[in-house]
């Protein structure tokens, strides 16, 4: 456990595109690395028979744990923006930074999709921190189990995602990691962590209004529905990037600041925050990390690029998300 605060798990930054931490599973406990994803609600790990894209990840063997139990005989496919995992559900104990969820449903994968190969996903598996409605097999997400089993002091967890000092805190918020007031906004749909965004502005001129957005630690970038994104880049003289669907480029010498208004507070992003760099050494076109994605019912996704600038608090007890300046 990192530091003195119970529930605090230090997170490792993988290429500034994902952050992962350690958990222990089973009896005797075995340590695994897991991606903590607020955009889903299941837990998965490679099983002992998982080959192919599971190579390089540590496998969970239910037969080696005295507390593991099989949940029926059905097979399930969990699909994500970046990949998929296929297998059977078991239950076992999962511990994170001193807190344990007993009888936690875990998909033990027989196969991983390419997106979860060791080259693109550093963690062994994933823990979903969304609401129960998103769980594929109708079982409780890990943090909901911790709440119901009275394992955590508060139904709150918080993230700092940064180049260093990154942390997930279960059971509250870490006052050492943020400063000033917390801006809270209600969760408007308890499946994903969905909030209202009042407007998106470029160089302080409003371009879009009244959006719905998912705050998602499991998505690297910021994405929006293709119509809104097209409107944004039309205003900014952006160009469709042919190399990858949904992406746009902007002139490197005139990148705007982008501001999201949430709960009447402005959250500003400088070009350094969303500029993925020039297309090549001689190009004046820079690739933007704000891209189009219609895969989540027209909602925007405020991923890691958004969360990196703020301490982010997920309050399941009061169904709200909070943002505060990093200390």
TrEMBL record:
PROSITE patterns: ASP_PROTEASE (PS00141), PEPTIDASE_A1 (PS51767). One of its GO terms (molecular function) is aspartic-type endopeptidase activity. Keywords: Aspartyl protease, Disulfide bond, Hydrolase, Protease. Residues 19-324 form the Peptidase A1 domain. It holds the Pfam family Asp. It comes from the Eukaryota. Disulfide bonds join 50-54, 252-286. GO terms for biological process: proteolysis. The keyword Hydrolase applies. The active site is at 37, 216. Belongs to the peptidase A1 family. This is Peptidase A1 domain-containing protein. It comes from Hydnomerulius pinastri MD-312.
């Amino acid at each position: 456990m990192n530091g003195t605060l119970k529930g605090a798990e230090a997170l490792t930054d993988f290429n500034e595109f994902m952050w992962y931490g350690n958990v222990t599973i089973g009896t005797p406990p075995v340590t695994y690395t897991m991606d903590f994803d607020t955009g889903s609600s299941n837990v998965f790990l490679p099983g002992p028979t998982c080959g192919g894209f599971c190579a390089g990840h540590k496998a969970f063997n239910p037969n080696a744990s005295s507390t593991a139990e099989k949940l029926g005989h059905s097979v399930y496919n969990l699909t994500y923006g970046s990949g998929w995992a296929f297998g059977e559900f078991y239950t076992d104990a999962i511990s994170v930074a001193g807190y344990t969820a007993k009888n936690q449903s875990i998909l033990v994968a027989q196969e991983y999709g390419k997106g979860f190969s060791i080259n693109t996903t550093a963690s062994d598996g994933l823990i979903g921190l969304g609401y129960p409605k998103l769980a594929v097999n109708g079982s409780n997400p890990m943090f909901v189990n911790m709440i119901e089993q009275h394992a955590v002091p508060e139904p709150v967890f918080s993230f700092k995602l940064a180049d260093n000092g990154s942390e997930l805190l279960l059971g509250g918020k870490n006052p050492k990691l943020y400063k000033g007031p917390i801006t809270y906004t209600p969760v408007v749909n308890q499946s994903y962590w969905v909030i209202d965004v009042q407007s998106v502005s470029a160089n302080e001129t409003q371009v879009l209004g009244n959006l719905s957005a998912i705050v998602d630690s499991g998505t690297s970038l910021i994405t929006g529905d293709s119509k809104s994104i097209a409107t944004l880049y039309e205003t900014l003289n952006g160009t469709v990037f042919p190399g990858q669907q949904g992406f746009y480029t902007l002139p490197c010498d005139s990148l705007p600041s982008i501001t999201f208004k949430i709960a009447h507070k402005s959250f500003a992003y400088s070009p350094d925050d969303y500029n993925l760099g020039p297309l090549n050494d001689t190009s004046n076109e820079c690739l933007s990390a704000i891209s189009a994605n219609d895969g989540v019912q027209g909602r925007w996704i405020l991923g890691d690029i958004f969360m990196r600038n703020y301490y982010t608090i997920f309050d399941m007890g009061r169904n709200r998300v909070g943002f505060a300046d990093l200390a």
